[in-house]
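We emphasize that the prediction below concerns an isolated chain of 756 residues; any contacts that depend on oligomerization or on bound cofactors are therefore not represented. The input was used exactly as deposited, without trimming of termini.
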Amino acid sequence: MRYVSDFGSTQGKIAGDLGTRDGALRALTRIGAPVPPGFAISNVACRMFVETGDLPEGAWEQIEAAVARLDAAVAAMDAGRPALLSVRSSAPVDMPALMDAALYLGTNPDSTAAFAQWAGAEAAALAKLRFLETYANVIRGVPVSRIRAITGAVTPTAPADVLDAASAALDALIVEETQRPVPTDRLSQVREGVEAVFASWNARPATAYRRVNGISDETGTGAVVHLMVFGNLDSASGVGVGFSRNPTTGDREASGRYRAEADHPTTAYEYQGLDALATSDPDTHVALQNALNSYERERLDLVRLDYVREMGRLWILEGRVAERTPEAAAKVAVDLVTEGLLTREQALTRLDPQHLGTMMHPRLAPGELPEPIASGSGSSPGAATGVVVLDSDAAIEATAAGESVILVKRETTPEDLVAIRTAAGVLTSHGGRASHAALVARGIGTPAVTGSFDMLIDLDAAEVRWGGTTVKAGETISIDGSAGLVYAGPLSVIDGAQTEDFTTVLSWADHARTLEIWANADTPGDAAAARAAGAEGIGLARTEYMFSGDRLDVVQRIILTTDAKEQADALEQLERLQVGDFERLLEVMDGQPVVVRLLDPPLHEFLPDRLDVEYELAEARALGEPTAELESLEATLDKFEESNPMLGLRGVRLAVVIPEVYKVQVLAALEAVRRRLDAGGDPRLELMIPLVGTVEELHLIRDMIEEEVHNAGRLLEVTIGTMIELPRAALVADEIARESDFFSFGTNDLTQTTMG
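Result of the prediction step, given as a token string:
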């Protein structure tokens, strides 16, 4: 069985997969790009090593033969240069910088002497030190802190004797920590390097990344072994990154960065740019452009090449489809179609809708960002900067005064809707992309980061803490709701904008799609924005979000009062409010369907907080004040208390227990339809009954709705359906379907209730 293949080889079938890095280097070799001599090892060898602790039979012999071929190629190219090797991972899917790399393999007294003769004593001494650093950490597992205690103060420009002294100390440290000397045999180093890279497949960073991104643990990683090349040897050396088009704008021009006399890049913002390379070495610049153009034609996409210029010679070490801004993504897609390289359908499949969608939201300005102080779930796209505010009333007041605020809470409830709508951003310590804060923020376009689980909100101290980082209320933070990151202090935010290329891409999608696009919208403003963006209907108008702010008191009176007249007055008031809500929504969406979901959230979200009531009651007793009203309220809360409100009195169950609420909503919706018809409109109302679990529940509420439609005294067309959001409903969906005009799928609740 063959486990090894040279980059330029076309011989026979290899067991398993050689990985994405090998695929890129093999393609670059095929198109004639200057790739260092090397070979790849299959992921099957990794799987066997992880399972048994040893390489599969015959694999090491194939690696030895491949090293011999590599050495022959180096000798034919430059007989005087030392053939130091690197071993890097090559997983079947991209896993950026998450597995180990073993570098400078083959370093021993003979190679160091040859290196000094080839490139100078200082370069040879630095290569030896770099070898021992990576060998100690990657192969032998010496603690990084002990390595840095020796190398931390040693600069790459230090004299050879200083570098040699640090190398001697590292050599001794490796022996002390592992009780084994560093082998001087080159092949022994290569074997240890290959095994270390394979072992890193199961290291914590790699396993965590696979778990988050749904990548199987069973695949293992391939590895590539190739000649090391150096960008720090002289003024004719350097390292850089090249792009076949501008990754920021998408313009059709080679772009990139270059750093002279360096062995590795520091940050992406310290490169001098390709103009510097063109000035210092026109030949290398042309060769790089040719490689970029050829590789773009190979991949039919904007590509990135990582390269080294070694003593005036260009080497390509890495190639991949390039990262880019959403503006560049749209422009590159349009240009590639215009140039005849892709069809519209092919271009569409290469675009990431989530990435492209960030163009429509505010974003952090491009540039080098500080380290985030916290992270969570990027639950509502967009970026925002504002002062920390810890309660909704303060957020509303501060916003009214012209201040930009970030609402920071443990979690949000319907009471927070106005604050979420007015705040620049929302940050919560609990919940994920399906939480209340996430759903509401996405629906109204407020950037949100949820589930920052290590965040502690101290209301007494009016501060927020993440480990050793503390932010006081009133201090400024910035959030990125797309990436799920939190930053200390203010950062520059740029507005979202739709380019001509973005509009073109959307027109292609409209032409290709077979599904209609409906939106979630709970207010006339949201519906108008959705229609302007191309929505062809409202698939979910959540009436519970219409009961926030001052209206919450009306709902509480309906639920809590024991006085029939007071309840009737509150119901009448709610009906008047809802008629206006529905009429404006139907007017905005005239001629298009509007699915109105009748009241759904857990009942406790509409009731006063039990702890607040208990506190007020205790305080009133202590002060000798009347307590009858508070005691009655406490008793009512006791009656409605549930161990799990999310699976309790909500949705259709609430309609069974307190039918007046649903009846008022239906009457209001029908009156809104009548008014729109009288005004010459074309209302297309659909009513959704939520949380149905049995066909009997649907029967009960559907009969009530149809009775009110009949009592309306004129022919009103109203479609009645339900949402499948419980496992029980899914199991009896065939029965429910006979009584329902349409289904919608509540994937949030259905997932949670199914998975437990």
